[in-house]
Write a structure and sequence with these properties.
It contains no helices and 17 strands. It has about 200 residues and is an all-beta fold. The strands form 4 sheets. The chain has a 5-stranded mixed sheet, with no helix packed on it. β4 and β5 form a beta hairpin. The radius of gyration is 28 Å and the shape is elongated. The C terminus is likely disordered.
Length: about 200
């Protein structure tokens, strides 16, 4: 009888995790944000399952077989970069696929603090800021908005502090040292700290 080779068995088909993680809400936050609530949506969730955020187990509330929620502490989103989100049972036997969560860098002032005029009354101090593409520095006093979204909170000879009017983040801008090669024209203030006696 002729020899008949047995067909090789087909390669095993990867079995998807039994717990399905479809998407999370929100999908991103800004680094430095406060504690926020994450909502995980999918299927086949059970009450003994937890949300894991960047491999950290979160105290999780079971809403339904399709939804879990948990609070992500601010300490876990202090820096920018991707974070892994999965759902897993307490015993580790049931787990989901992963979804990536984005922690983005918040918008920062695109201008430089180049000088100030200090007056006898502090609330009349005037700061000067160089915005990209503008030949003449922008002047601002306390509570003025520079660059369309950054409110000037405080001003000193060393730094200016701004608050993002949309997001609430605070940004400190140290004063830039004088560039002796630059010259001011058109009556604009010199690029240095101009401090009159108080």
């Amino acid at each position: 009888t002729p020899f008949v080779a047995k067909p090789e068995p087909p390669p095993p088909t990867p079995v998807p995790p039994p717990v399905q993680l479809a998407f999370v809400m929100p999908q991103n936050v800004y680094a430095g944000s406060k504690t926020f609530r994450i909502e995980v949506n999918g299927d086949k969730f059970t009450p003994d399952m937890h949300i894991y955020f960047s491999q950290n187990q979160l105290p999780t509330t079971f809403v339904s077989a399709q939804k879990l929620v948990a609070d992500v502490p601010a300490s876990m989103i202090s820096g920018e970069g991707p974070r892994q989100v999965i759902v897993q049972s307490t015993d580790g036997r049931s787990y989901s696929n992963q979804v990536m969560f984005s922690v983005q860098a918040p918008p920062r002032p695109g201008f430089q603090y180049i000088g100030m005029i200090a007056r006898k009354r502090a609330n009349n101090d005037t700061g000067y800021f160089q915005e990209p593409g503008k030949p003449v520095p922008t002047s601002a006093r306390l509570s003025d908005v520079v660059g369309g979204r950054f409110r000037l909170l405080s001003l000193s000879r060393e730094e200016a502090v701004f608050e993002d009017v949309n997001l609430g983040f605070k940004h400190r801008l140290p004063i830039q040292k004088n560039d002796t090669s630059a010259s001011s024209s058109g009556g604009s203030p010199p690029i240095s700290c101009i401090c009159s006696p108080r």
